[in-house]
Specification:
This protein has helices at residues 14-23, 49-61, 74-85, 101-116, 132-138, 158-167, 190-203, 220-233, 264-282, 288-297, 300-325, 348-358, 375-388, and strands at residues 31-32, 94-100, 121-126, 142-147, 149-150, 155-156, 173-177, 206-211, 237-242, 254-260, 341-343, 360-361, 367-369. It is α/β, with parallel strands linked by helices. It folds into two domains: 14-47 and 301-388, Aspartate Aminotransferase, domain 1 (Alpha-Beta Complex); 67-298, Type I PLP-dependent aspartate aminotransferase-like (Major domain) (Aspartate Aminotransferase, domain 2, 3-Layer(aba) Sandwich). The strands form four sheets. A seven-stranded mixed beta sheet has the order 2-10-9-8-7-3-4, with helices on both faces. Helix 5 (132-138) links the parallel strand 3 and strand 4 (142-147). The N and C termini lie far apart (51 Å). The structure holds pyridoxal-5'-phosphate.
Amino acid sequence: MSFFQPLAQQPADALLALIGMFRNDPRPGKIDLGVGVFRDDAGHTPVMRAVKAAERKLWESQDSKSYLGPEGNVAFARHMARLALGDVDLGGRLTGVQTPGGTGALRLGAELIAASRPGVTVWVGTPTWPNHPPILAAAGLKAQSYKHFDPASQTLTFDSVMDALNRAQAGDVALLHGCCHNPTGADFSLEQWRVIADTLSSRGILPFLDLAYQGLGLGMEQDAAGVRMVMDACPEAVLAYSCDKNFGVYRDRVGALFVQTGSAADTDRVSSNMLALARANWSMPPDHGGAVIATLMDDAALVADWTLELNTMRDRLLGIRAALAAHGGVLGRVDQQRGMFSLLPLSPDVVKRLREDHAVYMAGSGRINVAGLSVETAGRFAAALNACL
Ligand code: PLP
């Protein structure tokens, strides 16, 4: 028997297969709502202007590529702590490290949680980002699911969220999307965040916050408001941050993990464990993306231009959402949802007919990336949808 005989074949990534099918489709006007990246009206995922300028600046000034430490670029982590949490600094009760993307931050956070409380239960609303469950499982954590969203009515099921948080035991963990919920776009209102923050705090549940789309929902401050409320209410919290979407640096893999602890002494111990886990996983994070974003954040003119471009991206998503919702039916509540994704109540057969008969490509789950549309093509998509329902 070969050494690797016991390995079961793993399923291919369905979204990657969709990319290939889309590329090979000769029909003009084909629409790709599959892959989860931002696109402009021309269907392009651009390098943001300020990122390009910061890369140029870094190229001119960088005089060494010698190793950093497992914490990565400390200036970058400081900047991201401030972007996410406002007027804070690392030190005291807050520690943070650079990670390979939000995925790396989630994995490191999950391993830190597991190292402290082996086998602890993590409460996860469904549907969720498909990579959440395997990341938790890989760290040896037990996921307990509950309903976050009802596709048929296109509504967030807040009662079932609260029911779950009230069933959780003290010392359990709650994984929550900070904004622009993937795949549903169904975010908590500020009032709902208030109730969640108070419940987590009074019941002693550790928040594990995933903020991967700050600035792509309603605005930089609004999109972080829930996360900040929870971190104010709870003495201890874990925050996984991704810069890959709001700086458009996906393949550079840029993220950070922040942990808020109960005391400076705890911070020391937690921080030493984060560094040890990072070292065992990736030694140190890839430098380029973090160094570029730190360079950008140190330059007020570049920050202003990045903000401007991010605002344009967000306005584009909001405009497409309004155009879709105007068609009513299953699209009627898309303007109540935020970020790049919505989850439409479509059967696999409808998804297949949209692809075969109308050249509209989307995930089998019915998730659409609204950035794959434009205000102009929204009508064509709505018509195709109507023809298939
Ligand atoms: N969290 C959520 C909810 C996401 O949707 C994603 C990416 O799609 C991530 C985290 C991880 O992002 P990345 O690892 O690309 O930074």
